Amino acid sequence: MTPRPAATPSTKPAPGRSTLAAGLVGVLVLPLLGAADPARAGLPGPAAPTRDAAIACTDAPIGFASVNAVGQSGTTGGAGGPTITVTTAAALEDYVGRAGPYIIRVSGRIQVDDMLTVVANKSILGVGTSAEITGGGLQLGSTTRPGNNVIIRNIRFTGAGDDSISVTNKAHHVWIDHNDLSDGYDGLLDIKRESDFVTVSWNRFHNHSKSSLVGHSDTYTADVGKLRVTYHHNFFDGTDQRHPRVRFADPVHVFNNYYRNNALYGIASTENAGLMVEGNYFENVAHPIYVGYDESGPGRVVERNNLYVNSGTPQTAGTVVEPRTFYPYTVDAPASVPGSVSGGVGVGKVCA
Q: Where's the Pectate lyase domain (predicted)?
């Protein structure tokens, strides 16, 4: 890849709130499909209703999931494939693991026992406000079946026995949007093992310690040059740490997120990772940004135009690749973040 120019710390304020920047690559359509024809599609089981306002949207991710790269034009998920509705763990496991594109609508509460492997070209979309996956989680891809071009939206994840969502095994072009994640065992959302071009947006993380890890371990150097992730408009609501904790990646772009009452720290950049942190609102966070953490070596952080309310002083170091060299974006005024983010995150608000 052609080398990108580095960004340096800036005291200039970020742009104010405006409409979505023009020029996003690809438009994702979560279509208003009529009932699928199981016989024609070769599918057993129920078909989707004619429309659902909660997921019938025309929009696209901002950030790394929008970038044309690795032979993929943005992130489209299961667009163009059959639409089906699942209500059981068996059906969910079946369809997320099938080859080819599918738009999979999750209806109601589904109890799973383990991590379900999601393979390429899937949209996994909660119906209404009651879609829930509990007891287990979703793993994007295996070592032999990639989990590329996947969208997960409008689902509540609770009580996972491992991670709630694991983006792993070289998965690329993933959009995780408007979910509610809580009360798991390990990480609520981990991105690792050479995964790339991921956007995490408008999610609420709560009732948990370890929110989101980027990078498998201090010794997994295969992650160098990968793990490009955008976090925007997420609510880290009382979670202790990893919002995110990052190894090796450059850049990880963290903008317009709301941090509240995070007991250990907000963000940690380690093992020479490069983080651009801008337009965020930290409230009651004693250590908003660390450079290096625990036994991990230091990373790099550029921070600009963040607000620190009853919070400590952020650590910064070095220079970082400028996200704007990859994609356009607009940063909201950080003072507006608590209201817009707390009111807009989570399930049932996809079209808000």
A: 79-288
